[in-house]
Amino acid sequence: MSIYKFRTFEDAEKALWNFHPDEGYYERLRDLWDFADRLNPIEYPKGIFKFKTLQEANEHREKWELAHAKRKLKSRHHSSA
Fold it and tell me: Cβ distance 44 to 60 under 8 Å?
């Protein structure tokens, strides 16, 4: 593994970017998301929801995911007490 030196954090961050991903990159990304979903699955509400805008739909999803995260934190807090 190579060692690189950077003058700034921004330069180091740019070195992580992948401008030409190959098939293996997308496979690793899919595996990462699959693993995250197995670790912490979110059960979304069943049914069909209508939204006037994409922003409204995204806000609904974000609220649902935030509520899920809060429930997880609360259950972890109660189980460790």
Answer: no
Task: In whole angstroms, give the CA distance from residue 14 to residue 24.
Answer: 20
> How far does Cα 4 stand from its chain's mean position?
28
pLDDT tens for residues 31-78?
Answer: 999 999 999 898 888 999 999 999 999 999 999 999 999 998 888 877
Give the mean model confidence (pLDDT) for residues 9-30: 94
Helix (H, G, I), strand (E, B) or coil at 79: helix
| 10: helix, strand or coil | helix
Provide the sign of the torsion angle of the four alpha carbons 22, 23, 24, 26, taken in this order.
positive
Q: Domain ranges in the chain? A: 9-80
Provide the b/e sequence for 42-61 (b: ≥16 CB within 10 Å).
Answer: eeeeeeeeeeeeeeeeeeee
DSSP letter at 45 equals P
